[in-house]
Write a structure and sequence with these properties.
Blueprint: H1 2-35, H2 41-63, H3 73-95, H4 100-107, H5 110-121, H6 128-147, H7 153-179, H8 185-199, H9 204-213, H10 216-241, H11 246-251, H12 256-267, H13 274-290, H14 294-300, H15 308-325
Helix pairs in contact: 1-4, 1-10, 1-12, 1-15, 2-3, 2-8, 2-9, 2-10, 3-7, 3-8, 4-7, 4-12, 5-6, 5-7, 6-7, 6-13, 8-10
Amino acid sequence: MRQETRAAGVDKLAVAAATVTVVLWASAFVSIRSAGAEYGPGALALGRMLSGTLVLGGLWLVRREGFPPRGAWPGIITAGILWFGAYMVALNWGEQLVDAGTAALVVNIGPILIALLGGWLLKEGLPPRLLAGMAVSFTGAAVVGLSMSGEGTSSVLGVLLCLFAAVAYAAGVVSQKPALRHASSLQFTTFACAIGALACLPFSGQLVSQAAQAPAGATLNMIYLGVFPTAIAFTTWGYALARTSAGKMGATTYAAPALVVLMSWLLLGEVPGLITLGGGLLCLAGVAVSRSDRGLRRRDRPAPGGAGPAAEAESRSALVQAHTRD
């Protein structure tokens, strides 16, 4: 019973950590849109990664966690290049061509890709609902792209960049999951962020020149991106991911597009058009379909008349083992 209570407590902490992540990541879309008016995509990514690395490095030194074990490095390097490097540049570039809400809606096909890659590479399962959901979400992304095609090729390019960012994001999450079996969330995030900063170093000259001319508000937005949506949010994400599957963690980002649309409306005065919003809702509908577990709930439902004390004890034991394994 004590083990069961502890496992349930971990679940609550993981949900709280995931909630912090989703809110801060949603705010990132708005800050990127704002700072992107003064900073180029690569310069903004480098400034964000440098700010995040400074904060994370300080925490890492204070906690004396040491270097990650050898088994964690393949995932750290992969995520550092794809998620903390390529994703950041592609998203920054895409948000210069489309509004923050549209970018968030398109990037949010990432959870489906996470579930797909998790089922294939991490053996988390590949149910038919996942494939159906992926088809619905890609249809939604196509609707978003077509709805903006009348605004010029730059908007279509923006949607494509956001799609690429979603792929890089999914690859980063799937490479992170096995790495967290060896390293703590803080270790992973600190060194992946540092690798992302190294990958963005070619933009250092642009960052220096643009920082000299940018207003204080844009620079503060860049620092905010490094401290909150990166240093804090990626650490809380890793904490939660270590305690559940990659596919289920991807599902926690469902609320992000709605939060981004709300924040961009309140802070930037941006609201996607109705057709664009409809395509984004299709993206979310596909994610919801892909993560539906109705069949699982039916299979797990106790038989009429109860399962008896022995089966109940076996079920409790399996639940505790599953939480321990995650």
